[in-house]
Amino acid sequence: MSNPFDDAEGRFLVLVNDEGQHSLWPSFAEVPAGWRTVFGEDTRDACLAYVEENWTDLRPKSLIDAMGG
């Protein structure tokens, strides 16, 4: 069985948690607690493009806040 996260033909969502961290998620899988959908359902490439454009500071929100922005 192949990894559904690597399926170039799959359909995906982009999820974000309260720390502002993003995750690519297969659209057939249940969204885990603590995460919300912010983009998709779309292709893997479209979801990756969304993540690259919108998650520019990889630090967790709590660290950004602690460092004064």
Output the CATH homologous superfamily: Structural Genomics, Unknown Function 30-nov-00 1gh9 Mol_id
Strand order within the widest sheet?
Answer: 2-1-3
Biggest sheet layout: 3 strands, antiparallel
- The unreliable regions are none
CATH architecture: Alpha-Beta Complex
Oligomerization status of the protein chains? single chain
Number of strands: 3
- Given this structure, which CATH class is correct? Alpha Beta
Instruction: Name the helix and strand elements from N-terminus to C-terminus, one letter apiece.
Output: EEEHH
Instruction: Output the number of helix runs.
Output: 2
Please indicate the percent range of residues in DSSP E strands (runs of 2 or more). 25-35%
Describe this structure in words.
It is a single chain. The chain is an alpha+beta fold and 69 residues long. The protein has a single domain, classed as Rubredoxin-like (Alpha-Beta Complex). It is 25% helix and 30% strand. It is built from two helices and three strands. The protein has helices spanning 44-54, 61-66, and strands at 11-17, 22-26, 35-43. The chain has a three-stranded antiparallel beta sheet with strand order 2-1-3, with helices on one face. β1 and β2 form a beta hairpin. The longest helix is centred in the C-terminal third of the chain and has 11 residues, at 44-54. The chain is elongated. The model has no long low-confidence stretch (mean pLDDT 93).
